[in-house]
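Saturday, quiet lab. Running sequence design on the structure tokens for the scaffold JK sent over.
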């Protein structure tokens, strides 16, 4: 399975203590150099920068051959370009415009909340606990998205 991630899902999963679900779910995740730079930026939380300086073995950094020239940030552009180039199974991305662009180009996407839902379905995490942690961060997501996800996962017993 080929999975490429933008910076935000990695950033948030590190901060809520659930970064390991990516390895459990996908075995390997690819980042682009621009995404790695975003994760290493001085304004990024220290725990994320620490994670980015010592990437786990299940994370690889790869550059797209042809960079995307879209209007998004460099991380999103490179991640979408690499996902298209490798015919990725999933692009992990939260930015609304990047999600729309990726979907318009035929990519399958999952955001942070979706990743947590999948991990809960496999019994890897408690969805309710992870959402509680997520809400303590500066991660921006519509309340309606979280409420719908909580309803789905409460019915499933997660």
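Result came back. Writing it out in full:
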């Amino acid at each position: 399975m080929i999975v490429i991630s933008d910076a935000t899902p990695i950033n948030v999963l590190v901060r809520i203590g659930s970064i390991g679900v990516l390895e459990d779910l996908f075995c390997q995740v690819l980042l682009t150099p621009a995404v790695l730079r975003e994760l290493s930026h001085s304004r990024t939380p220290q725990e994320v920068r620490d994670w980015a300086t010592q990437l786990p073995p299940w994370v690889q950094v790869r550059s797209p051959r042809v960079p995307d020239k879209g209007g998004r940030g460099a991380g999103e552009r490179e991640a979408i370009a690499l996902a298209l180039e490798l015919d990725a199974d999933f692009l992990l991305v939260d930015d609304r415009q990047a999600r729309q662009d990726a979907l318009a180009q035929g990519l399958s996407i999952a955001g942070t909340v979706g990743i947590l839902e999948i991990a809960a379905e496999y019994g890897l995490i408690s969805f309710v606990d992870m959402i509680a942690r997520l809400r303590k961060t500066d991660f921006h997501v519509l309340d309606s998205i979280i409420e719908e996800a909580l309803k789905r996962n409460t019915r499933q017993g997660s």
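Notes for JK: Residues 90 and 109 are 5 Å apart (CA to CA). The chain has one domain: 3-113. Ask whether to fix the surface positions before the next round.
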